[in-house]
Amino acid sequence: MTSTTEPTEPLSVEQLSATTLLRFATAGSVDDGKSTLVGRLLHDSKSVLTDQLEAVERVSASRGQDAPDLALLTDGLRAEREQGITIDVAYRYFATARRRFILADTPGHVQYTRNMVTGASTADLAVVLVDARNGVIEQTRRHAAVAALLRVPHVVLAVNKMDLVDYQEPVFAAIAEEFTAYASELGVPEITAIPISALAGDNVVEASANMDWYGGPTVLEHLETVPVSHDLAHCHARLPVQYVIRPQTAEHPDYRGYAGQIAAGTFRVGSEVTVLPSGRTSKIAGIDLLGKPVDVAWTPQSVTLLLEDDIDISRGDLIVPSKDAPPTTQDVEATVCHVADQPLTVGHRVLLKHGTRTVKAIVKDIPSRLTLDDLSLHPHPGRLVANDIGRVKIRTAEPLPLDSYADSRRTGAFILIDPADGTTLTAGMVGESFASPEPVKDEGDDDGWDF
Asked: Which of 170, 179, 238, 439 has its CA at a distance of 20 to 30 angstroms from the CA of residue 246?
């Protein structure tokens, strides 16, 4: 590979606004070549600044390497690992003429499962890396399980280091078949397998001359063309109220608007809506977008809704179509990933944040903990520790309008917060999942609970 990459003209604001946005996460075991893949993707798509590339070339030359070590483009995070510093998800932004990308570069170690959950929670696609020499291993199955739990719509299996197995098609085919069967059993809706060599650049951005038996897309081609028809604009319409606007000025004496970012779906002037959890109804009298009235608005636009009736609405309320309102409940059952070092225990008093609403809650039960190695369920563990995935039952002080996570990844998700210091304890997904245990009969009633 040559080290001369001519910078391309940056995309204009108009070009960027015309392209769609794809959020994707990468996951791979240690030494599977994830850093090299990310570096190759950025380099070959000409998304690396000249000074960054020059720095990589200098370090690579000082190590006696003939070509730039593209893994160095992501080595900042690796250095943190070596020094024992707390690891977080590294987000990288780049764009091509066809699409904009937000890449969540997640650590692959089992003890950082919570980090993959963070990165993949908003992802439209997950790239799971596998070493062609090792095939599907336990960590690969963990990554597939997390992608399934988070209902990531698209998964790419990148079988890396094909150059080290002489680009043999049977090696790739066997790995692809095993992974596809496993991920499909978990409920992953779409799986695309691509044979690559991140080090040599095969099938990352440019098609490989060494694998003429493969007729599918390169990694970048797939990222640029994968459909985003699952867009939230087609989901149940939901607007969590963030702020009530009342200027009370001479120009706007009676203006009362309810501002927020549309979490899902589409709102139209004249539609009948319900405010939850109160259940009051009204009709949309107007929609303000960027200071101008519009007839229709959709996710993820930030808007202000004006209603025909003067009703009591405050931050934390949820505005929904009257004919498509979610149920409200104080009893929440969910699959959760515990992300804090402090354990989550039965009887734990927490704050539950759903959308813009935060309420007091108590952990009533932890029916099971999931073992990702073999997807077995450990019943009634009593607590969840960092990186654990399990089922919980929570009682809230106030009713909440909750969608199932299977229906909406935005309004079916919540977090649990430590009321003492504001630490995020747990990420939750409402409803059933493949990790759901058999129904567990409660042995007691609600006596002793505050609500």
From this structure: 238
| Mean pLDDT value of segment 58-70 | 63
Cα–Cα distances in angstroms (integers) from residue 196 to residues 1, 26, 108, in the given order: 16, 15, 19
Q: How far apart are CA 141 and CA 154, in angstroms?
A: 16
Question: Which pLDDT band holds residue 254 (cuts at 50, 70, 90)?
Answer: confident
User: Contact 255/245 with Cβ under 8 angstroms?
Assistant: yes
Distance CA 367, CA 375 (A): 15
- Summarize pLDDT for 175-231 with one digit per residue, the tens: 999 999 999 988 898 999 999 998 888 999 899 999 999 999 999 999 999 987 545
Q: Give per-residue burial for 46-61: e unless 16+ CB within 10 Å, then b.
A: ebbeeeebeebbeebe
Q: Which amino acid is it at 182?
A: Y
Cα gap 38→258, rounded to integer Å: 42
Rounded distance between C-alpha atoms, residue 84 and residue 116, angstroms: 18
Task: With residue 44 as reference, give the H or E element that holds it.
Answer: helix 34-44
- CA separation for the pair 370, 98 (Å, rounded): 40
- Average pLDDT of the segment spanning 9-21: 54
User: Which residue from 258, 244, 231, 260 is spatially nearest to 355, judged by alpha carbons?
Assistant: 260
Q: What is the pLDDT of residue 407?
A: 87
Q: What is the pTM of this model?
A: 0.79
The b/e string for 113-138 (b: 16+ C-beta within 10 A; e otherwise) is bbbbbbbbbbbbbbbbbbbbeeebee
Residue 164 backbone class (left: φ over 0; alpha: ψ -120 to 50; beta: rest) = alpha
* Distances 107 to 25, 141, 322 between C-alpha atoms, Å: 10, 15, 43
Query: Which DSSP state fits 242?
Result: -
In the chain, how long is the greatest CA-to-CA distance? 77
DSSP summary character for residue 301: -
Containing 62, the helix (H) or strand (E) segment is helix 50-62
